[in-house]
Structures are given as structure tokens and as C-alpha cells.
Design goal:
There is one protein chain. By secondary structure, the protein is α/β, with parallel strands linked by helices. The protein has a single domain (4-211), classed as Glutaredoxin, CATH 3.40.30. It has helices at 4-19, 32-37, 91-107, 128-138, 151-161, 200-211; strands at residues 60-62, 68-70, 78-84, 114-120, 144-147, 165-169, 172-175, 178-182, 188-193. The strands form three sheets. A five-stranded mixed beta sheet has the order 5-4-3-8-9, sandwiched between helices. It has a two-stranded antiparallel ribbon with strand order 1-2. Mean pLDDT is 82; it is low at 1-6 and 8-40.
Length: 213
Amino acid sequence: MKNSLLRTLLIGLILAAGCSRPQPGPSASPSPDEHAHHHHHQAMESGPPSQDSIYNLEATWQDQNGNQRRLIDDRGKVVVLAMIYSSCKGACPRIVADMQAIEKQVSAEHPEAVAFRLVSFDPEVDTPQRLQEYAQEAGLGPHWKLLCGPEEQVLELAALLGVKYRRTGPSDFAHSNLITVLNDQGEIVHQQEGLGVDPAATLAVIEQLLAGH
């Protein structure tokens, strides 16, 4: 990712995806209840994820406590990651709830082995202080880090994950509803797309990764 041409191409791809018309897939389509609470949200299909480790990204992020972190700081752990924005009232809380459901089942036997990460794609609003408030509101525990950074590096990460998003209003985004599982080297080994999806397949992948430690 040190190659500036590759970086430019990645950002171009995600921007091009963001400018296209959203095409909700069957599993990612907002439910009637979701429309009632947040009619601005449009689900976007995800793109193909990278085959390379996301730990090749060398950018520095800030977490909800104002500490500087790099993605590679999680090397050696299994990571469950999603991209959201804190002012989202429809899909994002459901993504977080889906991750909490995964955490609840994993933590019983492996309380320290799995890390949970949320990365904001709304850097203008989601400061460390705002993300700290969000973590408290959502009841997120010590295994969670909420990250924010400049738009360019958010676009880079989104491109690697296959997450598509675009702003649809002053405080609204259309975006993919995607939970990603990384192995201990930061490689994408599984993605769960949609809202309220049965996490059995995701849990099976996590258990397999933990068994290999």
C-alpha cells in the first residue's frame, strides 16, 4: 500500500462505487421496521474484498479514548470489524447488535482472544469524544475499539473490505451492511452481509481460527 498509484486506484474504485445507484441485495434490504425508524438509509451491496492483509495499511487512527493506533496493533488476534457512523439510527445499531451477539457467544470460552473494532466513515462528526459516548450508549465493553481517521484512509480501508458508502444527506449515508472477520495476520477470511443474519457461519469461522492458535 506504499505505492501511491495503487492507493489512488483503490480510492477511485470506492468513490466510483459510491456514486453508483445503490442496489440492495436480498439479505441486506432494510426491513419495514427499519424504514419506519430511519427512512433515509439505503443498503448498498458490498464489493469484492482484498486478498491482502489490511495490516499493510500504515495509517494511524484514533480510538475512542484519544489513543493513537494502527490496524497492525491487532496482529495475533482474531478481529471482528465493521464500518459504521454514530448518527445512524437504522442499520448501524443493528450491525453493532449483531456483533454483540457474536461477542456474547465467543467470549464465554475465549474472553480475551477476539477483538471487536468499529471504524467510522463520518470523520467530520465522529471524533474520539463522540465515539466514546457512542461506546457507552451501546454498552460496548473493553474488547471494543472505535476508530476514526481522515477521509482518505477511511476510503482506503473501505476499498480493501469491499464496503461501499456514499453520503445521501447532511447526516445520512447509504452503505454496505458488512461484518468482517480477520485472521491473526489481518487477512479477510469471512464476511457476514445483511442485518439480523444468523451468525452460525461467522461463529464457526471464528472457532476454527481460535482452534488454530
